[in-house]
Amino acid sequence: MLAECASKPNNFSVSMESGLDKYSKAPHPIRYGNYIRIRTEDYEYIFDLNGRAKIISGKRGDWSREDWLKLTKGNDWIFYTAGMGYSNAFTYEGEYYTLCLNYNSNSVFDYRPFKSQYVLNALDSLQCFVSNLKDIIDEPAYSESRALLKKIINNNSGLPKPDIHNIIESSISVLPPDTRHSDYDVIPVIIADGCLYNCNFCSVKSNEKINLRDEANIARQLNQLRGFYGEDIINYNSVFLGNHDALVVKESIVAFAIGESYKLIKNTVMLDNYLYLFGSIFSFLNADEKIFSMLDDSPFHTYINIGFESFDQTTLDLIGKPVKADDSKKAFKRMIEINRKYSNIEITGNLIIGSQLPASHLTSMQDFMNENITDRSNKGCIYLSPLLGERDNNEIKRKFHTIKYTLRMPVYVYLIQRL
Ligand code: SF4
Question: Between residues 304 and 197, which one has the greater pLDDT?
């Protein structure tokens, strides 16, 4: 329940700001693109160019000045914290800040900020601030900033928010881990629903059979997404072609989706363009070479994330993934080949990690991968995904370190994050 709001907001400033125009990794908070900033005595609020709340950070009390809350376009608040230490966060996640989610996920860190009063107060403070703005907006002192403040009132006043999932006719239960390179700010465009395997262990599957979207459906999504992102579209340079397996889709449809998506973001203020997608072992192995040539020639740098899960047949059978270990191994070799061949494509892989998995899972992973990684390429990495419901985070961390320091490839933890 919303705490009682204090009276009129006073001593606040409103400004239009520009942050960095290139996604970067640094041990200090970075704001990207163009945005509206409001500073009060206690908080800094950042709103997107439509006036929708985007970031809250606290300025005093028990709030660490480095931490911040970010609202996704799926309407989830995420807490970014430096509380684990930069090098710890970077070791596990390849980023300097750890993300804490407000729903059940597979983090290796036990910190739960959404149960902390200072985080709840920050969320309440935003609602109070917006609600109190209505009382003062007509005062002469706010004549210059009135247009911006009106946008903020109109877009954060507790009315039903536009739901991006209605536009794409899908939920996004998990984003590719590589979307971290765009701070998870991706425009989702669904080109195929469902997935080929519906593995028993998987907590993110939709249980749907593969359903391919046609050009008309993709064009409709993009048209409505243009309205959804509104003025803020200029802050986006990245697209996620969903959902769980975009490589099952014909090359001509993928090319259409890429071409139309690029039109949507071509006036971005952010440098470079990124495309993210998932592929399954089967669709990856069977993908025609011309799809990779097309991706390599596209205006995007493309990341494709493949779910290997394991190279050990006992483990694959145990988790109910209907794939042969030999195919998983073939796909890994293909990943290395594509990473070498195409400068504009980077394939990364997922493997599971769990305290209850057979020892053969770990040994097969290390033996097979190290045998096949013959050089230290600067492309490709492995994400280890702790099984959902894993209770022993210390054991997961121990296993993670064993793999990280013996594998000839960068290794990070895969945090299941939805959009
Ligand atoms: S692990 Fe991948 S292929 Fe298996 S059900 Fe989940 S999303 Fe589908």
Answer: 304
